[in-house]
UniProtKB/TrEMBL annotation:
Record-given protein name: Glutamine amidotransferase domain-containing protein
GO cellular component, one term: cytosol
SUPFAM superfamilies: Class I glutamine amidotransferase-like (SSF52317)
The Glutamine amidotransferase domain, residue ranges: 46-190
Pfam families: GATase (PF00117)
Amino acid sequence: MTDQRARVLEIRHADSEPPGFYGPPLIDLADVTILRIWREPVPTDLTGFDAVVTLGGAMGVGDAQRIPWIADEIALLRRALDLGIPIWGVCLGAQILAAALNADVYTASSPEVGIHTVTLNDAGTTDPVWGTADGETSGTVPSEFDVVQWHFDTFTLPPGATLLASSSTCVNQLYRHGKSYGVQFHLEAGGELVGEWLDSTESRSLITETIGVEATDRFPADAAATEPVTIPLARTVLTRWLTGVVVADAPSAGRTQPTP
């Protein structure tokens, strides 16, 4: 493993959508610049970054007419792709990445909310980031796992992308396009973060309408029950991506070295 640190632009779409379980590997392995895109200017120069991590949010690509920064982010991700900068997109981030790759993003026929099982396909189990082989330093990825879902939109598989995982409700759960990954599910979220999301009266009302009062009340505890798998899994896949894809392929000029 290289000892160089990735320079990451982390895009947040709301204060309530932090990196969660992705946070520790980002802190350990990267120098992170946070862009709170709803209130800060979108950078035009990405040459100082080795990767982009774009997180979740309650809005959707279809809201671009009332939320101008959505189009700005699609343009930013296209610039990153043109520069060969890898992108890790989470939920909304995966949908915005799909749009940047000229896929269609639309309202799903069935919302996917709660704890759902995601299963890797053959391409997923052999993927360099999501592959299920044991790793001495990066950990192991299960071929099937339960994870938090909270989305009402989905997307077509972007042209040139490889599908890596699906669920019974939503086919396009995880895809790879070159060095970039779109992750529809919330691997970063556990019981505490789901509880915080449900503290919003608007969010609780929406989720209650979708899955019912009992399932909504149980949602944080159900999310907490996934943590023994999702916490190490989030670290494993992001570590593999940052060290095996991002840093391995990025130019070394201007990098900082970790403190011994």
